[in-house]
Design a protein that fits this description.
The protein has 100 residues and is mainly beta. The chain has 2 helices and 5 strands; from the N terminus they run ββαββαβ.
Length: 100
Amino acid sequence: MQIGDSGYLSARFGKQNNSMFREMVMNRITIIAEDCKGCRICVKRCPKNCITMSPHLNKNGYPYAEFKSDECTACGFCYYVCPELGTITVHEEKQGPRNE
């Protein structure tokens, strides 16, 4: 399953009223590359290793963090440890259950 450049898609399965359903979850983060100072704190703190460092430099000359995984749990650790307020935004988006 693929969403495109806006994020990544994963699925959770479960039972609801004795019928199988699938709840679509698009957990992701956005990182403002131009505000990132390349400290790598978010990369080290992510429990699912969803963040990597770009090989490119931003306009300030820093390598910047990039979101690269569909395993994101939207835990928010990256948001809380980032010293550049507002650089990382966490998105936990659910699309209702779908019967299968």
